[in-house]
Amino acid sequence: MAGRVDALYIFLLIVTGMMTLLVFTCLIYFAARYRHRPGVAAEQIEGSTQLEIVWTTIPFIVFMVIFAWGAVVYFKERTPPRDATEVYVVAKQWMWKLEHAEGQREINELHVPVGQDVKMIMTSQDVIHSFFVPAFRIKQDVLPGRYTVAWFRATKPGVYHLFCAEYCGTQHSGMVGSVIVMEPAQYEAWMSGGQTGPLSATGGKVFAELGCVTCHRSDAQGRGPNLQGVFGKPVDLADGRTVIADENYIRECILDPGAKRVKGFQPIMPTFQGLVSEEQVNALVAYIKSLSAAKAGEAAKTNASTVAPQSNPQTQKSQVE
Amino acid sequence: MSMATAIAQPVERENYLNKEYGVWSWLLTTDHKRIALLYLISITFFFFIGGFFALLIRLELLTPAGDLVQADTYNKLFTMHGMVMIFFFLIPSIPATLGNFLVPMMIGAKDLAFPRINLLSWYLYIIGGVMMLHCMLTGGVDTGWTFYAPFSTNFTNTKIVEAGLAIFVAGFSSILTGLNFVVTIHRMRAPGMTWSRLPLFIWAHYATSIIQLLGTPVVAITIVLVAAERALHLGIFDPKLGGDPVLFQHLFWFYSHPAVYIMILPSMGIVSEIIACFSRKRIFGYHFVALSSIAIAVFGFLVWAHHMFVAGISVYAALVFSLLSYAVAVPSAVKVFNWTATMYKGSIHYDAPMLYAFGFLGLFTIGGLTGLFLSALGINVHVTDTYFVVAHFHYIMVGGAVMGYLGGMHFWWPKISGKLYPEGWARLAALIVFIGFNLTFFPQFVLGYMGMPRRYYDYSHMPEFQVLNVLSTAGATILGVGYLLPMIYFLWSMRYGKPASDNPWNAAGLEWKTASPPPTFNFEEEPVVTWEAYNYDELDAPHKQEVPVAR
Description:
The complex is a heterodimer of chains A (321) and B (551). By secondary structure, chain A is of the alpha+beta class.
């Protein structure tokens, strides 16, 4: 991604450099050539419609090229690859909490393997923050009350700055961290350094503890919709609309179940707003995603890394609210 | 009114300055020229307050560690710097001072259409200003001038409502000025002053006034909504109350992006006047320059969400706003090309106003072209909310707008004060401002692309940013000197300057056809316009024409 952005940036430097050179050369040349001389009067020129058309259309065409190029880069920045590993990010004044789908939890540090697509599913506990890694040329505001998504693929091992880019109060400039890009082998070693099992498994526990399972049964006879295979599929709503069941939809259904009720079901689900933490919502979302048949491959992968779920002291270190 | 012209060699002709003396003759005046001076004094006061905050910000950033002030203090400094500079200096700067002074004179009117409303708008500005000062002295605000919710509505415990109210009141001052200009330009033009004979300064102010009229009420409503959520806990912006924080940004930028054009359009108007005068030429492509002001005002209302490309808007919305942002860049480019072409085959003089106009062209071009970077979606994601943006908008709003403002102050100072300023000092100040400005803000482009986020009080995690920050701070001190100098020599010239003739630049325009300083009702007799704007060929011809007079 950095390469794509830099290529466009260099193109723009050249284009604007040429424009600047053109304007400044004319200015300086005219200023010198036509400086006031006694006895020489200015020549009155009304203007030229042809010239006006030329210097309206040529910049416009150049601008459209820049626009199209910028749009293409933006589309890539905004479209995470399907097989990216997922990291749930919770921002709060003034720290980053990061939770790998595999269950690893970190604060202000994100360990990733080199060459792997990483998708971040982000939300904020309080005000607006912004996830900014200058080295990867990515930035995305992190909003309270919903998910936003960003992704990157690191190409070189190293430690890179992670900044909060949206002003968020007193310690805004202290809300910094690092992205640590490791060789795959190192990363595996780091990953095995203690974990509680995948996030989806945690979500499954929360799902059971909260009693969700009594209505959302897997045999299609519950009072709530069957959640097997729902993720990523279109859902018909009671009000006639159709939405894609993405992370934001699942999140909204947990926190505000009445807003987009599924067709054929009664509005009986209570809201879980205030009853579950952001981390628990993330875990639930990860769990519901893991039920999706379309994600079978990924589910298998997470299963593989959870052969022995064991409780680990490192979890206790992370703040859970 | 006055018979002063009958006296052959008057000791001091009666004019708007010496007609009456005493505090009340100023505080209760309805003369647009006196109100312009009231504004001039007030905005200069706020400019130096805002500038003082800026210097403290730059001093704090001299070293990576947060050592000069506390984090909260720093956050208040950049917030108050932004609020004071934008709402109490840049928005009223040119319209309320030079615009107030010149709009009636340039179109041959005795005053604005609503002289009392004009005075009211100054009082509203002062009331808003006093509220803002009170807010600053009793704790200030720490949200940034952008007031982003939900931080502003439910998290900070600084004086949001009071600052919002101050801006709300000052906003009405801006609306009333815009209203006054629109009516005046429509209804009070002298006989023969057709739309296509209007100076481009008037066209620019007309476009500005439309933005003030249509845009300012939206920010007023937004402030009321912020206050309502903060005080009454109505759920509007905070998701915890059922609101939407992105809605706030839409409402805020719907005004605050066009507000940039409130700042830069009048400056463009000034530059058109100066370049024509000091090239001794009619402006190249008059109609295109005039209409590009209107085009900027119209397109300016359609690009607000380009401040929000990473804020969580959809990809398709981002595409539309990126496209429209390029559309608004075209009329700005057209203006620059026309100004450049005006100098072709001119007879160019290098008096101080022209040096400021050159400075404007240089800085505005850089500011405008870096806007192309920011409108490119792919690059915007990386550089938004970094020092790249800070540098870009300072090039436009300070480099462009303030350069033009200073150029205009020099150009019309002989008319306003009746005195000549010291030319050598003025040229020196223009040079110092240009150098100081570039040294302050050019390094910030580099800082931004390197990734330094804005509004960071402490960058001790990234000491690699220090060298560029030191350059920037050094530039700011130079810039400070450059801005102080004109204030000193303008004040000096009021007492010691040589008396100015009616038309020291031999410039076109009705304002130069009356005395310096002008009489209270501007013209001894109502002028009749029979010539096009910028008739420098006739002015430079051996036989100067007389002002025809209405019978």
